[in-house]
Each structure stands twice: as structure tokens, then as C-alpha cells.
Design brief:
It is a single chain. By secondary structure, the chain is of the alpha+beta class. Helix content is 22%, strand content 24%. The chain contains five helices and eight strands. The strands form two sheets. The protein has a five-stranded antiparallel beta sheet with strand order 4-5-6-7-8, covered by helices on one side. Strand 5 and strand 6 form a beta hairpin. The longest helix has 20 residues. The chain is extended and about 90 Å long. The N and C termini lie far apart (102 Å).
């Protein structure tokens, strides 16, 4: 005996529904960055504005201005100046001085230190103040020799910095100058540093055992080893172009 099956019901055909015409939405407004908003505000105010910094929600204007200076929205021929005043934080947009666009002539660096300057000799006698490994110390001293002899030939004064041990690598930017150059009443400090290569730290069995034994033990995440790259950090004086110049893995900027 076979089981009867119910006949399939065919769904009634419905006429095609008319296509619904979608209306275009409102055009998306272009997002205005902080720098663009600030530049427009300065343009409307004639190039100078003062921001109040009172209250719980006051803005960290020095940090904002520092970020705006790095923005590509800032015209190449303009500079942002910011500083505290009696009424708050003053922001000005001024023309970049023509001398900032001057092409800098390269400084010849000697291949050997045959007649080191007195400042360089003082550094040779106090190698701890440099904090450099021997493979790069000679190149650093040749660079310093070139800078000092070139500036002195232009009529500027040079002097050695305060001797002492070099600080750790992560505090080098705040270190005392290794030597200074004084020109037109302004003194600029120089520190030549050695770059560090960072690699992932592989914990040893001893470190793991100490960490399990003592809760205050922290295993470092990275290892740092001195590289052959140099970095020159300038401080004081009138800022001009960059305040730091450094080698890259593929190119030596210094010497």
C-alpha cells in the first residue's frame, strides 16, 4: 500500500512590483582637521588668536600646536608660533624667514684626526663623557672636529662641555652638551649619540625561575645593542631646520 502524497500547491503569481527609486542621500561633508580649523581661525583673526586655558576642560595647547607644526596642511611659507601670555595661550601664524630656506653647504669631514682641536682632545681624554663604543668613537670625533674647525673659521667660538659619564641611552636627549658653539650671542649645545638596535628578549631559564620565585621580578621585553649609527642632537639657540640629525640603516647622514 503506497502512501498518498498531497499535491504541491503552486503559489499564485503576483505581478512584478514596481522598482523603488532610491533618493540620493545628503552629500557627506569633508572632515575638517584640527590644523585646518586652526588655520581658518587664524586667517579670520588676522594671524593672531589667544586661547583661554582655565577650567577642567582646558586644552593642552602647546601639545596641539606641536602637532599642527608637523601637519602637511601647514603652508611651507608659514610658521606657527605659540606661547603663554597674560590672557592665556597666544598662537600666531607668521611668514617663514627667508634665511630658513637657505641651502646649507656641506661640511668637509677629515678622514683622519691628525691635528685634533683642543675640544676634541679633551673628549679623547674623557671617553666616558661620550658614551660611545670604540668602533664609532673615531667617526664621532671626526665629525666634531669638522663642525668645530668650520665654525671657528667663520668667527664663532667653541668650548668643551662639562665632563662626566654619559647618561643611559633613553636619557641621552636631555644630557649635558659634549661641546658648545656660540654665535651672535647664542650658544648651541651638541650631543653626539650612538643609536641602539632593539630586538625581542628571549627569557633565560634563570630569569623565568627568578620571576616565579619573586613577584617583583620583571623580565625585559627587549634587548638593546649599540649600532654603528650616530645621532647629533642640538639644544638651545635659535631653532633652524631640524634639531636632530641621524644616520639611517641604508645611509650615513653624519660623516
Amino acid at each position: 500500500m503506497t502512501k498518498a502524497t498531497a499535491p504541491k500547491r503552486s503559489s499564485p503569481r503576483t505581478p512584478d512590483a514596481p522598482a523603488v527609486e532610491r533618493k540620493p542621500g545628503p552629500p557627506q561633508q569633508k572632515r575638517v582637521t584640527f590644523t585646518e580649523q586652526l588655520l581658518q581661525e587664524l586667517a579670520d583673526a588676522g594671524g593672531r588668536i589667544v586661547k583661554t586655558t582655565t577650567g577642567r576642560d582646558s586644552v593642552n595647547w602647546p601639545s596641539r600646536i606641536a602637532a599642527a607644526r608637523r601637519s602637511t596642511k601647514l603652508p611651507k611659507t608659514k610658521e606657527l608660533h605659540g606661547g603663554w601670555c597674560r590672557d592665556g595661550y597666544e598662537i600666531k601664524l607668521v611668514d617663514t624667514p627667508a634665511w630658513r630656506f637657505a641651502v646649507l653647504a656641506p661640511v668637509p669631514v677629515p678622514s683622519r684626526l691628525t691635528r685634533p682641536h683642543s675640544v676634541v682632545r679633551a673628549m679623547q681624554n674623557e671617553p666616558r663623557s661620550l658614551g660611545l663604543t670604540k668602533p664609532v668613537q673615531t667617526r664621532a670625533l671626526r665629525l666634531i672636529q669638522a663642525l668645530i674647525t668650520t665654525t671657528e673659521s667663520d668667527g664663532h667660538a667653541c668650548s668643551v662641555g662639562r665632563p662626566g659619564s654619559a647618561p643611559p641611552s633613553h636619557h641621552r636627549r636631555s644630557a649635558s652638551p659634549q661641546f658648545t658653539i656660540t654665535t651672535q650671542g647664542l650658544t648651541v649645545g651638541f650631543v653626539v649619540q650612538q643609536e641602539q638596535d632593539r630586538t625581542e628578549h628571549v627569557a633565560t631559564e634563570k630569569e623565568l625561575a627568578e620571576a616565579r620565585k619573586h613577584s617583583w621580578i620583571r623580565i625585559p621585553r627587549f634587548d638593546y645593542t649599540p649600532s654603528e649609527r650616530l645621532r647629533s642632537v642640538l639644544s638651545g639657540g635659535q631653532p633652524h631646520r631640524a634639531s636632530e640629525w641621524a644616520d639611517t640603516p641604508g645611509r650615513r647622514v653624519i660623516a
